[in-house]
UniProtKB/TrEMBL annotation:
One of its GO terms (molecular function) is hydrolase activity. InterPro entries: GH43_arabinanases, Glyco_hydro_43, Glyco_hydro_beta-prop_sf. Belongs to the glycosyl hydrolase 43 family. It comes from Sphingomonas cynarae. This is Glycoside hydrolase family 43 protein. Residues 337-357 are annotated as: Disordered. Keywords: Glycosidase, Hydrolase, Signal. CDD domains: GH43_Bt1873-like.
C-alpha cells in the first residue's frame, strides 16, 4: 500500500551485533496471531528495533479510535502487543480508513503517510458510481515509533478532488521528494500509479503525473463490477533502487488467482519511466508488499496474505542488479502463515512458476 527508497539507497549490510537480543517474553506475539493489513516495517538499527505499522484494531490495542497501531520486535519473529501510535483527531474530516501506513525519515523527522476517507463528503460523479473524499495525509514524529501528530490539519497531499490512496515517499537522486500513489479505480475505472512533486515541507509542489495504468501489466486482469463495468486496480506502490542504480516499483493488482505482488522497472532509471512490467514476485492472493533491510544485512519483503483476514508473510530477496528476486519464504519467522499451496496441502510444483500448478 519509497520509505525505504530513502533508507535503502544508503543502506549497506550490517554485521550482527556481538550480543544477541534478550530472550522474548512469554506473552510476545507470533505473526499468525497478529492482525495486519498493508504492513510496513521500519528497521531502526540504532535502537535494534523493528516497527511494524498497520491499521488500528481495537481487539489488539484495546483502543477503538481510528488510527494506526504498531508492533515492535527485536528479531522479526517475536512481536509486542501493538500500541496506537496515531489517532485521527476529533473534528477532522475523515471517518474511516487508516489504510496503508508508511513511515519515512525526512529532514530529521519521521513522517507517517496514511489514507483516510469519508463517504459523506461526496465528489462530483462521472457516472453511476458514487465518489467520495479519499486521500493520503501526513503526520509527524521525532522518533520512528511515534507518537505522530497530524500535519496541516489532515490536508490532502494529492489533489483533494482525486480519490487516491497508498501514498509513498520517494526521494530522487537530486534530493527532491515525491509522493507516489494509486489513483483509485473507483474514479477512473482503470487505476493508475501517479506521482506528485513535493516541497521540502512535503506539501504538493506541482500537478500529478501518470506513471502507468494497471492494464499495462500483462498479468493484470479486469475485475467485473455489478454496474457492468470492468475495472483494473492499482495498489501499494513502493520504490526501491538496486545496487546498480536500477529503479524498481513494487505494486499490486488482481490477476489469475487473486491479489498479486507485482514489480515494475523504470527503463530510464527515473521516476518518469517509462515503466516495464516484470513477472510478479508473488501470486497466491498476496500483495501490498514492501522491502526493508534486516539488521543482519538480508534484503527482506513483507506482504499480507490473503487479502481478507490478512496475516503477514516474510520473504528473503536477492538484489540482482536489474531486478530483485525471491530467494525463499522466511518460514522460520512467519511460521508459514496461511501455508496452503495451490497444488495442494504440503505440495510444491515440480518446475516452472513456483506459485502456480
Amino acid at each position: 500500500m519509497s520509505a525505504i527508497a530513502g533508507i535503502l539507497l544508503a543502506a549497506a549490510p550490517v554485521a550482527l551485533a556481538a550480543q544477541q537480543p534478550p530472550a522474548p517474553a512469554a506473552d510476545m506475539l507470533l505473526m499468525p496471531q497478529m492482525r495486519l493489513h498493508d504492513p510496513w516495517i521500519v528497521a531502526d538499527k540504532a535502537a535494534g528495533t523493528y516497527h511494524l505499522f498497520t491499521r488500528n484494531d481495537a481487539r489488539m490495542t484495546g483502543d477503538a479510535r481510528l488510527g494506526i497501531m504498531a508492533y515492535t520486535s527485536r528479531d522479526l519473529k517475536h512481536w509486542t502487543t501493538p500500541t496506537l501510535v496515531f489517532a485521527w483527531p476529533k473534528g477532522g474530516w475523515a471517518t474511516d480508513g487508516a489504510w496503508a501506513p508508511e513511515v519515512h525519515p525526512w529532514r530529521g523527522k519521521w513522517y507517517l503517510f496514511a489514507t483516510f476517507h469519508n463517504e459523506k463528503l461526496p465528489l462530483p460523479s462521472r457516472g453511476a458510481r458514487p465518489l467520495h473524499r479519499r486521500s493520503t495525509v501526513l503526520a509527524v514524529a521525532d522518533r520512528p515509533g511515534g507518537p505522530f501528530t497530524l500535519v496541516r490539519g489532515g490536508e490532502s497531499v494529492a489533489p483533494a478532488a482525486q480519490m487516491t490512496l497508498d501514498g509513498s515517499l520517494y526521494v530522487d537522486p537530486a534530493g527532491k521528494p515525491w509522493m507516489v500513489y494509486a489513483h483509485e479505480w473507483v474514479q477512473t475505472d482503470i487505476g493508475t500509479i501517479e506521482a506528485v512533486p513535493l516541497n521540502d515541507d512535503l506539501s504538493a509542489a506541482g500537478s500529478p503525473r501518470v506513471l502507468f495504468r494497471a492494464n499495462e501489466a500483462p498479468w493484470a486482469l479486469a475485475q467485473p463490477q455489478a454496474d457492468g463495468t470492468n475495472i483494473y486496480v492499482t495498489d501499494g506502490p513502493e520504490l526501491f533502487r538496486t545496487r546498480t542504480g536500477t529503479l524498481l516499483m513494487l505494486w499490486s493488482s488482481y490477476g489469475k488467482g487473486g491479489y498479486i505482488q507485482g514489480i515494475a522497472r523504470s527503463k530510464t532509471g527515473d521516476l518518469a519511466g517509462g515503466w516495464e512490467h516484470l513477472p510478479p514476485l508473488v501470486r497466491r492472493d498476496s500483495g501490498h508488499g514492501m522491502v526493508f533491510r534486516a539488521f543482519d544485512g538480508r534484503l527482506m519483503m513483507i506482504l499480507h496474505r490473503p487479502f481478507t483476514r490478512a496475516l503477514g508473510k516474510l520473504y528473503e530477496l536477492r538484489d540482482e542488479g536489474d531486478t530483485v528476486s525471491v530467494v525463499r519464504e522466511a518460514t522460520e519467522l512467519d511460521l508459514e502463515a496461511y501455508p496452503t499451496h495451490p497444488c495442494g496441502p504440503g505440495k510444491r510444483p515440480a518446475g516452472g512458476d513456483p506459485d502456480e500448478c
